[in-house]
Amino acid sequence: HADDGYRLWQRYDKIEDAAKLNGYQQALAEVVFEGNSPTLLVAQKELKDGLSGLLGKAVPVSQRITQAGAVVAGTPASSALIKSLGLENRLKPVGDEGYLLLTTDINGRKSTVIAANTDVGVLYGTFHFLRLLQTHQDINSLSVASAPKIKHRVLNHWDNLDRTVERGYAGFSLWDWHRLPGYIDQRYLDYARANASIGINGTVLTNVNANALVLTKEYLVKVKALADAFRPYGIKVYLTARFSAPMEIGGMKTADPLDPQVQAWWKEKTNEIYSYIPDFGGFLVKADSEGQPGPHNYKRTQADGANMLADAVAPHNGIVMWRAFVYSEHTPDDRHKQAFNEFKPLDGKFRDNVLVQVKNGAIDFQPREPFHPLFGAMPNTKLMMEFQITQEYLGQGTNLAYLAPLYKEVLESDTYAKGKGSTVAKVVDGTLDNNKLSAIAGVSNIGTDRNWTGHQFAQSNWYTFGRLAWDHSISSEEIADEWIKMTFTNKDKFVDPVKTMMLNSHEAIVNYMTPLGLHHLMGWSHHYGPGPWIKDKPRADWTSVYYHQADENGIGFDRTKTGSNAVAQYFPPVQKQFGNIKKCPEKYLLWFHHVPWDYKTNSGRILWDELAYRYTAGVDTVRQMQQTWNTVEGMIDEERFNHVKMLLAVQEQEAKWWRDACLLYFQTFSKRPIPQGLEEPE
Ligand code: GCW
Question: Which family does it belong to (predicted)?
């Protein structure tokens, strides 16, 4: 039946493939569960509902094994049966959140075991096991051990208290402050379930452009209600802390982080929060950026600000995620360099429970950016990653963009901080600098739209974020494969072409928006559609001409020695690569170099022609995506099919809009014709 995508990737419809169904039905006869903690009850229900749905028959739950084909789940503490299996040595390495999936004989009966050290580990293992069935994997001789590579896997909601969502394209905020705390919308539980299914274990409820009111008692009781609803699913709640809150809601004259009264105010406020929410995660802060207050107001450093809050949450084991997205129009320097210049000197000055939250690139979630030079540059500080899941700069609510390739490209980038192989992923997961405390954040794309994310395919980015946060070594292709099978169908005729379409989708957008390292050409302020001509705004760093620097000689931002020298912020091997026009990967060419229009690119074409080819290729790929999608008609429900088909048609128009606008605009500088054989822009 149609649900317009509400169930996300958690569809437990009866398996259609008869042979698969038969095999699973033989192998899986009952669920054996002991223990009744809230988390175990959630896991038990998931397993029962999942199996019953997928197998098309009621699968009973019992306390002990009554037949072959039992699925036994639990921890040594919750289940005597699990304890009796003597798995201690195998369980040890999977830690607090990991799990084992094993096929084993118990008293001569072939059984499947989902074992963990903790209840939430059992829940994660349950979802993994169900995923195996949903994707038609062989489950006859399981021997899986899985544990997350990153400790805190957190969604950032840019949700305002009036329920608008900054950069949200999927309706309004899920948090219904008006009806909280008394009314717990089923949607909160479905949200928590979806997150748990991909290992997300934290959520920042409020916008980084923060409203201090959420820290008042009136709101805290509502936040508590949400925290209570999410807790069984292993999800901790965090809030954004507005730096000036002591003045706005505390009646103080200052918010100076070195003022003892301000410090005392935050301690007291924090204690109050923990009195409602004993496992409150901590604070996320945007300070001194885009109009937000911060330590700069008192001539203090980012570390002074972060440490004040860190000291307040430390007695409760809370953390502070302090954003590095700090830049100012009053700083007369390339925006690319500002966060690095501000934070690098503070390396080692942050408390142990502070993570500096760094966007993947130095500017702002562009369709493509080279990795942020801070990664690897602060070995004595914990750095966490911030990705944007919502598509602010990637076509917003109408474009199909599968973002695993973007996230992977950044995570796999080599910083050379400690020689070759010092990838961004190793900085983030803590292995490079031996940090136990590690975190990754994704700016959510979730809202009240029936399908949660607006575009059906945007669900894949929520899914991807969770899967990569758990294990960044999974390939883009594997994630797409899983997601398609769970969300739509296992039929090869659907899976293969749709996977190809997804895997090409990000590059297509880069091509029709900002090829060859161009960036920030979007419409002013809303960032929707092309605006390469944007200039003369109150802030130069919010215009497009600032970034592309096109003139009759060429195009691109010179960030080498002859320009802003931002390349100097990278480690020497990277510097040498990005800084040398001959060695710079072409995808970053105009990010780092101002390049003559007749410069010969890798294809042999001159730069202007290559630009025209890329823009055109972007549009062509969208047209191929449309054709691909047309071939799968009838293989899935009409609702979702039509939804995607209509949006692809919109995307094709928008891709053309981008191509035409950019080529016609840049042509006023290059003064060269569109190469023969390419569609003329109109
Ligand atoms: O990308 C920019 C967005 C702002 C956002 C800011 C940030 C929340 O345009 O809307 O504000 O980044 O990340 O702080």
Answer: Belongs to the glycosyl hydrolase 67 family.
